[in-house]
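WARN no homologs supplied; continuing
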Amino acid sequence: MESPKLGIIMLDTSFQRPLGDIGNPATYSFPVEYRVVESATVERVVKKGDSSLVPLIIKSARELEKKGVKAIKTSCGFLALFQNEIQHALNVPFFSSSLIQLPIVHSLAGGSIGVLTASKASLSRKHLQGVNAENIPIIIEGMDTMPAFTQAIVEECMSLDMKAVEREIKHKVKNMIRSNPEIKAILLECTNMPPYRTAIREITELPIFDINTLIHYILKAT
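OK structure emitted
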């Protein structure tokens, strides 16, 4: 059996994972190995930035290293807070967040980047500092007030309605671009947003970057 090429550290969640989502192994054309960090809830990671989870994440990452993975990713971009600490504990490339792409996207696009995040209220300068992107010109838009997305993915109190989430994401991206014409590219912070990439393409010709563009880029180098 072929060794897994990518290790993915998952938060402790139970919502649906459609094709394109990092939690759906069918998203990838190569072997993937998962580890769930029990008690690493959205509340603790996104809302609280709970550093007490770091040892548990490192433990799971080392287990994935023993499985022979070439690189390790997490299922939540808000773990950017701990990028350096976790990477220094590992021997394979570790990328906590799609936000790692911000410097290179800025270099390629030559202007501001529109960042769509699961929670604008929670995404701070510290997250950007964690991936050396605090000086990149960005416009942040969040899904905080979008009920279909928030209730299914952040609060986990309702089942996922993909059509409703698609409408919400398109609405947010459209408004962000309209209000900020200086935006030259879109970056999706949340690993649950790539399933809606095609829908976003319907409303903009701007380059779209997400966790899967980063995964394919990293794995080509390993």
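The mean pLDDT is 96.
OK
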